[in-house]
Amino acid sequence: MRPIREENPAEPVLAEVLPFERPGAAVRYEYDIAVSFSGRQRSYVHETVLAARQLGLRVFYDEDVNGDWWGRNILVEMRRVYRTGTRFVVPFISEDYLASRFGMDELWFATSTALHRPGPYILPVVFGDIELPADVLHPYTVYLDAGKHAPHEIAAHMSRMAGAGE
């Protein structure tokens, strides 16, 4: 473990050092997909998660772990998932998400992981016509528009991505 300095240096955080991933090395993740979203998009994300699970994906969804994480530090647990526990992260980005401390924290940890992984790791879905800051999402990153794709279509895209690397 090593300390990582964040926006508020008064709140130091310990984070796991990412294991070195050799090309071709078999890595087993707890989840195929981890979703990150704002509460206002919960209904859409919930439908997407159900559809993805029907396609056989192992999906991290916050409602599933509430009892398992009882008494634990939610930030530490979430950071573990978004750094080392999942093969892909699907952030559902909206104005509310960009204003959410939890959402941005999850995305920050996913972004730091993406720097150490070959190929795509963050698979963004965007709600509405919002301006995405370059420090949140690179301007040339391809994303799916939630307004043009039903939840089952997003789930089908997730399934294709998860199957592409196997």
Automatic annotation (TrEMBL):
It comes from the Bacteria. Pfam families: TIR_2. InterPro entries: TIR_dom, Toll_tir_struct_dom_sf. GO terms for biological process: signal transduction. Residues 30-164 form the TIR domain. This is TIR domain-containing protein. SUPFAM superfamilies: Toll/Interleukin receptor TIR domain. It comes from Amycolatopsis vancoresmycina DSM 44592.
